[in-house]
Amino acid sequence: MTDRLNTTSYSREHDEEVETKLRPSSFDEYIGQAKVKENMQVFVQAALGRGEVLDHVLLYGQPGLGKTTLSAIIASAMNASLRVTTGPAIERPGDIAAILNDLNEGDFLFIDEIHRLNRTVEEMLYSAMEDFVLDIVIGKGPGARSIRLELPRFTLVGATTRIGLLTAPLRDRFGVIHHLEPYSVQDLQKIITRSAAVIGVEIEPDGAEEIARRARGTPRIVNRLLKRVRDFAQVQYDGIITCEVAKSSLDKLEIDKLGLDTVDKKILRAIIEKFGGGPVGLDTLAASIDEEAGTLEDVAEPYLLQLGFIQRTPRGRTATRLAYAHLGLDGFREQAQISLAEVL
Ligand code: ADE
């Protein structure tokens, strides 16, 4: 029992170590997001030239696009330290006061999922971001008094997958706002080629392209697929990732030609087969396939929307003609249209 647990935790640690090794540590090593990279390099150089701290930065985009990686690179380019936390982890005003008070001049604070900060904590951030001070209320009722805590000047990097959930006062306090886009297949191919060299596995250009095509625009996914395909290559082939090895491994992992996995297909099938093609509300849809509504919205849905397989309407999600065609369910579509015609 202990053995099994130890083995599991070792392998997870090992995966995390690999993860760290795969992260680019400078702008030069960072592939893709050309515009963001170019602009950020200008802002960094300008701030360094003036001897100032960098203005606060907000990065938004789907999970896995490298928001944490990019902020570590920016901090390093500014010769600063980076402290990493997440919105939900900062529960009380005392937590944010302690974190901010602990920073050194010029440090970076990265807050992931910044849209999930609670309101009191968020309001304390306003003066911290604007004037580098914290107003702390001590006591309650008529005897309550406020003391002002001077903070070191710092750069806040906020990251979110849901920019729409950020309040305007918080959003307006970021001097730089960047949207990270899904990566092109070409950029993902470069990333996987670099990653393969880092972990020491041989990969052919066609093999890299095949994996890149199925990685739904996301570096985190391309690197995860690389590790799994490497396992197949090592155990069932001669260790080299060719196009053939990539294809057969990804088929075994049930990741199709467009990168859809079993969850994506369950979603599409549910909309089509259980709800007549939609519209169906997010919560109803999530419950029908036993998934969390949040996961569905943040993780699966963006890619299905990007492919044009689903649409968001005020009454819920609908499957498009492209989704029926991809799943080979055109018959269902005709049937749905016939029943609709009968009702009308
Ligand atoms: N690994 C993960 N994301 C990367 C990126 N954008 N560039 C290079 N390597 C990466």
Protein model, in words:
With 344 residues, this protein is α/β, with parallel strands linked by helices. Helix content is 53%, strand content 13%. Strand 2, helix 4 (93-101) and strand 3 (108-112) form a beta-alpha-beta unit. Mean pLDDT is 92; it is low at 1-9. Adenine is lined by residues 22-24, 29-32, 66, 69, 191, 194, 219.
Shape: globular
- List SSEs in N-to-C order: HHEHEHEHEEEHEHHHHHHHEEHH
**Number of DSSP-assigned strands:** 9
Q: How much of the residues is beta strand, in percent?
A: 5-15%
Number of helices: 15
Classify the helix fraction into a percent range.
40-55%
Bound molecules: adenine
Radius of gyration: 24 Å
Low-confidence stretches: 1-9
Question: How far do the termini sit from each other?
Answer: 63 Å
Largest sheet: 5 strands, parallel
Report the structural category.
Answer: alpha/beta
The strand order across the widest sheet is: 2-3-6-1-7
Mean pLDDT: 92
Supply database-style keywords.
globular, 9 strands, binds adenine, 344 residues, disordered N terminus
